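Supplementary Text 2. Reproducibility record for the structural model of the 676-residue chain.

All settings were left at their defaults, and a single model was retained for analysis rather than an ensemble. We include the record here because the model underlies the residue-level annotations in Supplementary Table 4.
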Amino acid sequence: MGDQMQVIVEKLNQEPFRKNYNLISFDSLEPLQLLQLLSDVLGEIDPKHAVDIREELPEQTAKRMLNLLGILKYKPPGTVSDLSAFRQGLVTGSKAVIHPVLHWLLQRTNELRTRAYLARFLVKLEVPAEFLQDDTVADFNKQYEELMEAFKNLHKEHEQLKISGLSTAEIRRDISAMEEEKDQLAKRVERLKKRVETVQNHQRMLEIARQLRLEKEREESLAQQKQEQKSQLFHTEQRLQRAQVQLKEMQHMVADSKPESLMKKLEEEINFNSYLVNEKIPREMESKKTSVYLLQKLVAEPAMTQADLTALESEIEEVTAQMNQLIEKRIITYEPTDSKFSMYRQQASIISRKKEAKAEELQAAKEEMSSLEKQVEQKNSQAHGLGGSEVLTEDEFKQYVSRLRSKNTLYKRRRQEVAEITAEYGILQRTEELLRQRHQATQQQLQAIEEKKGISGYSYTQEELERVSAVKSEMDEMKGQTLDNMSEMVKKLNAMVAEKKASLAPVIKELRQLRQNCQELTQECDEKKMQYDSCAAGLETNRSALEQEVKGLLEECAQEESNYRYINCMKRSLEVQLQRAKEEMKAYVSPEPQERRRAVREQYTRIILEQENLGKKLREKQKVVRESHGPNMKQMKMWQDFEKLMECKRECFLKQQNQAAIGQIIQEGGKDRLVL
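Retained model, structure tokens:
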């Protein structure tokens, strides 16, 4: 209540009220004065309500104020929720009713002024249904509703223009500047046209310039397309690198893991994704939709002032206090029968919170891993751009070194073999040339002999038959070898399968025993975990109850401390006032005239007498001024006319002197001619 009075006094001491109140003077106001003050505040919001309540009946005053408060959407606080009690308190000028109303009005004066202005045009007049049967009345009512909607739209546009910050003066300045630029450009174009027209073949040159401009634009578009394609190629390479990295990871996982571990990982990933899809993401979507709806609603509303923020904070504090009271009542009316259900609820809530926290941690870890993978990809791309290769890990580097050593030894051995083969190749090549020469000589001799005997081509046919028979025999041998190899391979595979089965049989038996042990241990772990969770939930419940109790006690202590400080301040102010009153009474009752002069009453009496004497002198002076006003104005007018007359005479005298000087010059000129 003290904070509320402090806010009211501060607002009333500011513009446009300037009441110069303090907490004591405001608290000592009479009911009629409070009603007049409320009427003045309402008159500041709506000028129609700036009236003197002494000139109207109390019922009319209450009706007028209730009507305006209803338009302004004021809701009575919880202490005066009954409308009849609120109306009665408004008629009698009760502080418990008027102080909250003043506090609510003074905190949002600008907003309420706008609302009262809009209410003059948007409060719909209710026309009875029987009057609406008339076509003329119905048309007028429809036209009235259309005008109301048009006013709403115009007001919204006006508010948007005010918020946007554009003004007509700025727009006019921009338009004038653009028109000036347009005129300057037009003049410049005209000058350039005149210059160009004097040049030979200007049309052809203009056409060439136009083609040049088009080609430049085309070059810019092609450069832009090239840049876009480069960026697309870069993104595609990055995607390819990511896919290759994922492929390597999957191959590594497949090579280093067993089917059971892979299935377990897949099940964990499926459970996590199903939790995200079914629980976490829908809940986040609902919260995001709610926040978006609230933000859209907030954007649609007018801008909030500091008074609105303080009002919202006060409402939040009130709701928080009510919640604390309800929690305290619930704790007081706690029944032991609900302890099991509350314990299970708290356990479920704790487990759900832990589950959400772990899911968020996992999501954050995945995001961090993806960001690190992106950084690795960027580093790899930078290495590729600088002409390097991918960055190897420690194991890959060791493997690379071992492969490099083996390849080096293999390279040396192969190089020696190549040198030997090269030398042998030279020998064989020479031998081949010699044999080819001999063969050619032998063939020539054979052809000569065949021509002599009359059987030319016999040797060629004989060679072809031998070559075909050799190829056929080779194919038959290859078929037989292939069949033998296949039969041997099948035998080897069967033997290997039998051997693997025999070697895996004891391992499978051990695996079954280990699975059974794992199930038993898992069951025991789940039981221990349930016991731990129940114990933790109980401890968490006790801790939360103790925290609530401590919080309530701290709030009560703070409230009592603030009440103590407020009462102490009031006590000090009342003691100071009482001391001043005692001193005043002592000075006023004292027989000494010097002491009496120090009394405030004597000082104010002396000041009042001085002001009355000053008022009398000023009234006498005003009377003298009024009596002499007419003659003085007449005399001033006569002086003005006399001034105009003298000015006219001066001008006539100057003109006469000028004419006399001109006549004298003319006479002197005539005399000079006669002498000549």
